[in-house]
């Protein structure tokens, strides 16, 4: 993957808490603003979530669309939002909501990069204490390949 899937503008930190739907809406809206998805992507995320939870463990959820809704994806991109107040993700506590849009099979590569970062407890701890989107971006830069 040559192109960057994540830039500082796609990273946000919120002190409060939101509902799972609000978190998914923000993820979809960041991806839409990045030009990676159409306005239909939020519904695609909701569809996926009804089939299978996108909670991944380690306070991470990765909402994304279904294979049937691939036409809502225009390019590959990530959104990364930290909710310091937490999000109740179907009964699981989530701090990090990472929206993914992947053209073709690119989402698999992106997912594996995110999984690698979140498999390290000290990395997760650093992500939790980063003060700015710029600091988070530096910690997440490996996702850009």
What value does the Rg take, in angstroms?
A: 14 Å
Instruction: Indicate how many domains the architecture comprises.
Output: 1
CATH architecture: 3-Layer(aba) Sandwich
Oligomer: single chain
Which fold does the CATH topology refer to? Answer: Mannitol-specific EII, Chain A
- The ordered string of helix (H) and strand (E) elements is EHHEEEEHHH
Helical run tally: 5
* Mean pLDDT reading: 93
Please state the overall shape, judged from the principal axes of the Cα atoms. Answer: globular
Q: What top-tier CATH class fits best?
A: Alpha Beta
Biggest sheet, in brief? 5 strands, mixed
CATH homologous superfamily placement: Mannitol-specific EII, Chain A
Alpha-carbon distance between the two ends: 6 Å
The amount of beta strand, in percent, is 15-25%
Number of strands: 5
> Uncertain runs with pLDDT below 50, 5 residues or more?
none
Enumerate the strands of the largest sheet in spatial order, edge to edge or round the barrel.
1-4-5-3-2
Question: What does this molecule look like?
Answer:
This protein has one domain: Mannitol-specific EII, Chain A, CATH 3.40.930.10. The chain is 38% helix and 22% strand. The protein has 145 residues and is of the alpha/beta class. α1 crosses α2. A hairpin with a 2-residue loop joins β2 and β3. The chain has a 5-stranded mixed β-sheet with strand order 1-4-5-3-2.
């Amino acid at each position: 993957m040559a192109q960057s899937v994540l830039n500082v503008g796609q990273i946000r930190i919120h002190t409060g808490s939101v509902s799972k739907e609000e978190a998914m809406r923000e993820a979809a809206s960041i991806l839409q603003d990045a030009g990676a998805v159409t306005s239909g992507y939020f519904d695609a995320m909701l569809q996926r979530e009804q089939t299978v939870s996108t909670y991944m463990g380690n306070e991470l959820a990765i909402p994304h669309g279904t294979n049937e809704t691939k036409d809502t994806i225009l390019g590959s991109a990530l959104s990364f939002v930290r909710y310091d107040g937490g999000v109740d993700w179907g009964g699981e506590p989530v701090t990090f909501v990472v929206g993914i849009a992947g053209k073709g099979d690119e989402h698999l590569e992106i997912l594996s990069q995110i999984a690698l970062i979140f498999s390290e407890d000290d990395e997760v701890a650093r992500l939790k204490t980063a003060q700015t989107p710029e600091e988070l971006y530096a910690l997440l830069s490996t996702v850009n390949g």
